[in-house]
Write a structure and sequence with these properties.
heterodimer, A: alpha/beta, 6-stranded parallel beta sheet, 5-stranded mixed beta sheet, 22 strands, about 15% strand, B: about 190 residues, 6-stranded mixed beta sheet, 6 strands, globular
């Protein structure tokens, strides 16, 4: 019996890459794609696979780096979440024209729902826009198995191939057989060809023509044709070259296909309604499309999140999907939703509506999180300000009224600049404007925005919430670590040096746990911004290592004791509302607040928060 | 054997770990598994849910791109509402948040400080007595496995735990056993 392992979808993708002989992979963390690179790094350590791996500074850099390795004839990959592809759009669009030499697989994880993203954008639609083939696996096993074939497709047509898993593939676990990795090194061979690798517009036209020809061929590639999953069951003994005719058929891809297969089996429709899985939604096989429309009266298309397959089936009369409202136009296609759609399509009565679940707890910053302390100080020094913020754990500062805008990576600084111009140009100089941005986000996309703010004469403070890691996505290192993924020492790139180099005249660093000290830093920054003579932009770095990160290395033991709530507590609820530490427990007005010692990190910041000085250090500590 | 199990809790309670142990126990019994997990922002103190499906494999007649969907009886990583055979709630809030997944007559195992139903257990107190409240997840798992309702036994889970080679093996074993003992005391039949 072959050994089987249970792998997370993203781990399965990492296995697929190394089984196929990938020699360079680059990524920027983002849910639900983050574990791909983490798994690659772990596998390389264990199996000594010759493959360069990196957490790149952003997705654009990741794609460009991996692409050059592919120009040199070696198999490469870049991995990111869907909004990361927006950042990498420039090189990806262009790479469709230049093509590749060594296989290039671009893994972009979509997030229907969305669960952890700004948008529900569909990377398959992006693939149409870029004119690149895109594969849509339904489960971790497919995501892994398809990678070696994706490399073959990429090399046969010299074209980047997109693999588009969704959250339900990335974060599903499934058992699968274990296979060996490719360990034979592949030699780089870069052949100069300026008409291709450095093509000017005249040559770009020719490359575009070639790309269109490639797509025509890829659409008919026998390896990626839609597959009738229940052929035996729906056709019985029938066989032959003539395609059968159906009254109804389902065409599905991705996780929606996995839900649909299970629903069909459950509803006893597996023998009655044929279901096609489309492994490559773009370019959709022309012959499949023509035959399906010819031989089938009613076609239901199930796909996430945009009508990509549906839009390519050119008969609005026969096709049911998102374009005619048969399938909801937004939100995840959960299996219960798929069931209702399939029932309606099959003419079955709807299933009983279940009670919708309770709202549940909203996510919150951890007890002892340095961000909470920094936000508290910020609101004290800049009351009634406009707080432009960014993407990361600290987005949860929303709960504290400390986050007014969240747009995309790096936008905190540029949007604060926009607010600055809006208010100053209309004569309102008093409204405080503050940008908050995490350390990893600052490196990713904050630097150009900071240079721009300086160059445009803006005057507002930027608080860099520096916890030393990319916490939300699983603690990936930042360039401040001064270390590559394989442990090689490199010069650390510090935020203070970068801020100064961007032309910021006032840069300070402080620990947000030291509430009075940090408030002083913010006041000094405020003064600098307002100084008519020598003032300008200010950067305050709130440096406090992530507790979760520390716990990973030191365990949970080294915590300071929890503070105590004295009889001075009036149960006013101020600490609950404006600090929202999960370790502080409210028991109602006029009842004393209590502290959950299991959750409390012992940071002591709440001592400074309580307006009645009712929270104190435990006496054992002061004695 | 086919079973759909929902594991509910708050971020940091070890929902993922309990699910992983159950999945490994299924693999040892040569069953196939499908698991769905919560990652990212929701992990920060919010309600967390894992879905686990355990089922036998169907022999796939031939390899193709779609083979994995043809060779498994259950293919969706998510449990539909009203379909879970078992709900393991590491926090009593999980009953309100995820009780809708449970089928009529499904089994509930819930960690709560004032046990009410048959499946309830004050797992935190038991874990605290063992030296670490965080082990409550394994106490509740031991409790559920000893009930005879799960697809696997306490010994199966212990074997999975041994294979996983965690750093706190001794405490984890004790926690499983303590939960199992509590279940045996509860139901002598």
């Amino acid at each position: 019996m072959t050994e089987r392992k249970i792998l997370l979808g993203n781990e399965a993708i990492a296995h697929g890459l190394l089984e196929a002989g990938c020699t360079l992979a680059a990524s920027y963390p983002g849910t639900p794609a983050s574990e791909i690179m983490a798994a690659l790094m772990q596998l390389r350590r264990r199996h000594a696979v010759p493959c360069h791996l990196e957490w790149s500074i952003n997705e654009k850099v990741a794609v460009e780096t991996a692409l050059a390795n592919s120009y040199a004839g070696r198999r490469s990959a870049a991995a990111m979440k869907q909004v990361g592809l927006n950042v990498a759009a420039d090189p990806v669009m262009s790479a469709a024209y230049t093509g590749v030499k060594g296989g290039f697989v671009l893994i972009v994880a979509d997030d229907p729902g969305p669960h952890s993203s700004q948008t529900e954008q569909d990377t398959r639609q992006f693939a149409m826009f870029a004119k690149l083939p895109v594969l849509d696996p339904a489960d971790p096993v497919q995501a892994r198995e398809w990678i070696v074939h994706a490399y073959a497709l990429s090399e046969d047509y010299e074209i980047p191939v997109i693999l588009r898993p969704t959250t339900r593939v990335c974060h599903a676990r499934q058992d699968m057989p274990v296979r060996a990795f490719q360990t034979a090194p592949s030699q780089p061979v870069f052949e100069k060809d300026p008409a291709r690798w450095a093509a000017t517009p005249k040559f770009r036209y020719l490359l575009h023509k070639k790309l269109n020809e490639k797509l025509d061929q890829i659409a008919q590639d026998p390896r990626w044709q839609p597959e009738l999953l229940n052929r035996t069951e729906t056709l019985g003994g029938q066989s032959g070259s003539v395609e059968p005719t159906f009254d109804k058929a389902i065409v599905a891809s991705g996780a929606a296909c996995a839900h649909a297969v299970e629903v069909l089996r459950d509803l006893d429709l597996w023998h009655r309604i044929p279901i096609y899985q489309v492994p490559m939604p773009f370019p959709l096989s022309e012959s499949f499309s023509v035959e399906l429309l010819e031989n089938c009266q009613n076609i239901l298309v199930l796909e996430e999140t945009q009508p990509v397959i549906e839009g390519q089936l050119r008969d609005r009369g026969k096709v049911r999907g998102r374009l005619n409202g048969f399938v909801p136009r937004e939100g995840e296609l959960l299996p219960e939703i798929v069931e209702q759609i399939v029932r309606r399509f099959a003419g079955l009565p709807p299933s009983e509506q279940n009670v919708s679940p309770a709202a549940g707890r909203r996510p919150t910053l951890c007890a002892g999180c340095g961000h909470r302390a920094a936000f508290f100080a910020m609101r004290k020094v800049f009351p009634k300000g406009i707080y432009a913020s960014d993407i990361g754990c600290y987005t949860l500062g929303l709960n504290l009224g400390a986050v007014d805008t969240v747009l995309c990576m790096g936008a905190s600084i540029s949007q604060a600049a926009g607010f600055f111009h809006a208010y100053r140009d209309s004569g309102h100089n008093t409204r405080p404007i503050v940008a908050t941005i995490g350390d990893s986000t600052f490196y990713h996309a904050g630097i150009p925005a900071l240079i721009n703010a300086v160059a445009q004469g803006c005057r507002f403070p930027v608080i860099v919430l520096d916890n030393g890691t990319t916490a939300m996505t699983g603690h990936q290192p930042t360039p401040a670590a001064g270390m590559t993924a394989d442990g090689q020492r490199v010069p650390p790139v510090t935020i203070e040096a970068l801020a100064a180099a961007c032309g910021v005249g006032h840069v300070s660093v402080g620990d947000p746990y030291d509430v009075p000290g940090f408030i002083q830093l913010l006041k000094a920054a405020k003064d600098h911004c307002r100084d008519a003579e020598n003032g300008g932009m200010a950067v305050v770095i709130a440096r406090r290592p992530c507790l979760m990160e520390r716990a990973r290395h030191e365990g949970r033991k080294s915590r300071a004791p929890a503070p105590v709530v004295t009889e001075k507590c009036e149960g006013c609820g101020f600490c609950i509302k404006s600090f929202e530490c999960p370790a502080l427990i409210f028991h109602g007005e006029k009842e004393a607040v209590s502290i959950d010692e299991n959750l409390c990190a012992g940071c002591g910041v709440c001592l400074h928060v309580c307006p009645h000085q009712a929270i104190e250090r435990p006496s054992s500590r002061t004695a | 054997m086919q079973q759909q199990i929902a594991v509910s809790g708050l971020g940091g309670q070890g929902v993922l770990y309990v699910t992983k142990l159950l999945a490994e126990a299924a693999l040892q019994k040569d069953l196939s598994v499908l698991v769905s997990e919560t990652h990212g922002m929701a992990q920060r103190g919010g309600n967390v849910i894992s879905h686990l499906k355990v089922f036998p494999r169907i022999h796939a007649p031939c390899a193709s791109q779609g083979a994995s969907l043809r060779s498994r009886f259950l293919t969706s990583p998510l449990i539909r509402p009203g379909r879970a055979d078992v709900l393991l709630a590491l926090h009593e809030e999980g009953l309100a948040a995820h009780g809708y997944l449970l089928k009529p007559g499904g089994a509930v195992f819930c960690n709560r400080s004032d046990p009410q139903g048959v499946g309830d257990l004050d797992a935190v107190s038991i874990a605290k007595d063992l030296g670490d409240a965080v082990a409550a997840n394994l106490v509740l798992l031991g409790h559920a496995a000893a009930s005879g309702i799960l697809f696997c036994t306490v010994d199966d889970v212990k074997e999975a735990l041994r294979q996983s080679a965690g750093t706190r093996l001794e405490l984890s074993m004790k926690a499983l056993e303590a939960g199992a003992c509590a279940a045996r005391r509860r139901e002598p039949n």
